[in-house]
């Protein structure tokens, strides 16, 4: 009996190997079919796991852009290849490497989280392939390679205007509450610094572990500190739970103002969060209710193509990432060489659905309007209604270095 | 009685025997590189996953310790190798040795927590240790880079000769070589008197104690060895991808390696490698077809695998191969009696 | 202080309702069911759908969530899980993880990856001042409801005919069968009850913990921690373990936020080192 088992294991082993060979042949064939006049764009985003919603929004937006703008630019055919990295950096790096080496991708887009973007940075330098970050928002990412561009936003970019607005509106004593990882710490630092410089005081900096089901103890600390306002950054997806517990704890009635970056009142989730979010003031670069003809058309088309899903800032990041690629290719007349594309992308400016944007030629980061918004009900639906605009905000992190 | 003595003798002789299919297996894995040069990266990831699963097999298959926190050692190895490469000791071999020692140290210290308790207790203690290490790596961001990952690794060429290339060829050959060497070492360990005494402990620790085998020292020893193996796997991952992030300590890594090992078969050294091949190729293939919903199909495969029973699947495989190859090879006498 | 204690108890109670079904399947039936969270997910989603789309009152949805998950659990037990009782633990782990993967992807495909929310009635959203602390009525509601449930389950297990049948079936299925106890049905009903409780927990917890397709994976670890710390001997162990962990977690994050994330894991490891079988063990061997 035992020998039969051991034998079957061995044979099973060799069978597995032959299946392996079969599979890899198939995979090899897929990789081989590439045409010369096709420009391939790789989109690497997390489509499963905790950050899955980022990937969904980005994929939908990138596909919508191609659908609207055609699959041909400057005589070249555009092909989008979507990959799921599950949010694991070593997978992101492998997928990027495969896209560059096997598929001969000319541009890489996506990167849902900071470590995912950083994992690919040395690769884009080495292979001279432009890497457009359409989601991750830690400020220093673009410094890691001269080939990195960004069409999302940086957290300092969103946090500093929030602090300035707070100072102007009588907020002197604040508590910050952020998720304990790169972007959260960025938000905490830049918000706190701006408040302190403006004469306010930061009573406490609270950092919430990323895997945290219950915000109760942290909110209780906020309540006990009784500041004028609490500034919050949590990645989109945690916003709903946070907002509910905020109001459940009665903080909304105890006179503590809730101010945040727009991640907390993510358009994708706002309806689900419900009325507890009414009146929350936050700063961000995009709202689905942004009042421009471009945006109205975009939101309508996006909803139509995606079963009523509302586009959020993630969708816009990918949409503009595609726009940047298309515009650069038009400028280079279809030349997809890495360095040529980089040169073309620097300083590029266009009217995005979020308003006027441009790429800072020095830092390759996005320069855009930051809007101060308030959650309001419009025709029965909750929206971030913009009521003030800070124009052409550069990333403060890099500006401060000069 | 005599039967078991025969069995034991057959087992002992196997230590020196190297069967045909094994030679074939390693030749085939070498041949993969020229055959599918553009998949070298995936293969290298599979080899590392295989080594990681092999390390779990050492404790699960040969000592009966269930662990849901094996990523702890993978992660420690990865961070040790990563930090060394960051601070100027970028030689890969040195990194591997340091990673193995670091992971072995943690394994040795924590192994004492696993001497008592049921499967479930061990499962949860290992899980708890891994999760605490995860939180610690997040907390000491000044050293580990926290959630952003470790930046600025400079890995030198392997043995000062072969530098890591964009295609992942060096990475694959390097990982495969280490996997091969460590597999041979593992063979020696599990078929040595020490390895046999481990099985005695696994089968019945009371009786093993009665004939003078101390279960505690053996469990500590194999757990430490297994930790060192996992540390090497982590170091390989860090060096070949040139990055380390919190993800190396994450729970899903512990769970994945467990799945991989069970798919390939527990307790026969090659199980982890076969499992890694099947799991990774399946994932890569399915994720290529449906990036959003591949998890569903993986889940379905697992469910079907259990419902049909891997035993039965393996016997189908045997019948199939039986039909293809010549009969005579199958019942080779010296291939008796593992497990 | 009172508030923190109170929040901890509420959190612990929620953990208890979510995990107690798992204690039964794991401790009593010796079946490692990692897909337990999937039934909580079902309960949460049903409640969300019924309150949002059908406009049913929240209180009515709770028993419905229980029923839905229980029926789902019963079907799953009959069709799938029953075959695995006699299999190895590794097979059980593999199988139930497979079920979790499928559930997560299927819910994602059918309903979408966004958070589901439940609209609580206004009277549950109020806060009260009590014993010098301010507490939320919804948390109080959870504590009372779960407390009653805990007592009811304990009573069911120790004072009813069904309870004795279950204990007999667990201790020695063969003898129990010989005595005319319908062991299969007893297990099926027990499993269904456990799943129903998880569904109820999902419905109650959706508002506090959030509910999205990855819920079964995110909370799997917490369920396992509670069950292991409590010991698999019975419901009361799980109950006290859930309370202990809930309070420790909340208090740890409040008083020492720098190391708050470690508290629950460290506590678990400490308990398991001191008492490898969990806080409460059943006499005799297992």
Would you write up a description of this structure?
The complex is a heterotrimer of chains A (402), B (339) and C (286). Chain A has 13 helices and 15 strands. With 402 residues, chain A is an alpha/beta fold. In chain A, the strands form two sheets. In chain A, strands 7, 8, 9, 10, 11, 12, 13, 14 and 15 form a nine-stranded mixed beta sheet that branches. By secondary structure, chain B is an all-alpha fold. Chain B has one domain (2-277). Helices cover 72% and strands 0% of the residues of chain B. Chain B has 15 helices and no strands. Chain B has helices at 2-14, 20-35, 40-63, 71-86, 92-111, 119-139, 141-144, 169-191, 193-203, 205-210, 215-241, 251-264, 270-289, 294-308, 310-324. By secondary structure, chain C is mostly helical. Chain C has one domain. Helix content of chain C is 72%, strand content 3%. Chain C has eleven helices and two strands, in the order ααααββααααααα. Chain C has helices at 2-28, 36-52, 58-79, 89-110, 137-159, 161-171, 173-178, 183-209, 215-230, 235-255, 260-274, and strands spanning 127-130, 133-136. In chain C, β1 (127-130) and β2 form a beta hairpin. The mean pLDDT of chain C is 85. Chains in contact: A-B, A-C, B-C. At the A-B interface, α1, α2, β3, α3 and α4 of A face α2, α3, α13 and α15 of B.
Listing every helix as H and every strand as E from the N terminus to the C terminus, the arrangement of chain A reads: HEHEEHEHEEHEHEHEHEHEHHHEEEEH
Average predicted local confidence, pLDDT of chain B: 83
Largest sheet of chain A: 9 strands, mixed
Oligomer: heterotrimer
Report the helical percentage of chain B.
Answer: over 70%
List keywords for this structure.
heterotrimer, B: 339 residues, mainly alpha, 15 helices, 0% strand, C: 286 residues, two-stranded antiparallel sheet, 2 strands
